[in-house]
Amino acid sequence: MKKNSVELQLNLTAEQKLRLARLQSVFAQACSSLGPLVQETRCWNRVALHHLAYRRLRTDFTELGSQMACNVIYSVSRSARLVYQSRNSPWNLERLAGRKLPLLQFADSAPVYFDRHTLSLRDGRLSMFTLDGRIKFDIELSEAHLRHFQESKLREIVLGRDKGEYFLTFQFGDAESATEVSDDFPQYILVVEPDAVVTA
Fold first, then answer.
1. Distances (CA, A) of 5 to 26, 84, 99, 145, 150
2. How far apart are CA 114 and CA 154, in angstroms?
3. Residues 67, 73, 74, CA angle at the centre, nearest 5°?
4. Which of 64-68, 69-73, 143-147, 163-167 shows the lowest mean pLDDT across its residues?
């Protein structure tokens, strides 16, 4: 367990895994749909991107609902910062020197971001939004985990998948740490150069 995070593997039924897989796929599609908008406008500030993209997302991905649409925007904003602002990124704005931005696309393995509206945890019982209604199940929290939830500010909730198993990562920290740009480049983002041809 990292100092500022709690990671929990989820004990899910086959049907629950299918529901999360569908959510993850649609969430990634919604993120990818904003790639051309970010490329064209060079805008990935979360608030500004929300104004540009929210209505489109609600129209094109109605089943995600309003709050998941906001989480899609958060994911795209966060990922764009990693690609365009990380010091070690080959697509850092300084290296691009005014050239057209590459296009960001998200694989189906991209994480899903949750918040207090789409995920709740009370008395060891977890409730998560899916496209097919909420799923609920029990999880075990150690004393160290409980201290994190009781004493630290929850910043991010991320659903990931590894070798067919799902896990949740709860990130804790203040607003300053939330704006830091990491040099860890995510494998789930496909960066397409402006002149590249993508074939199906």
1. 26, 25, 37, 9, 13
2. 11
3. 90
4. 143-147
What pLDDT digit, counting tens, does each position of 69-82 carry?
999 999 999 999 99
Q: What angle do CA 114, 70, 19 make, to 5 degrees?
A: 45
Residue type, 93: L
Predicted confidence at residue 135, as pLDDT, reads: 95
Dist CA 48 CA 70 (whole Å): 12
- Angle, alpha carbons 182-90-84 (nearest 5°): 55
Coarse DSSP helix, strand, coil percentages of the chain, rounded to the nearest 5 percent: 40, 25, 35
SS3 call for 167: strand
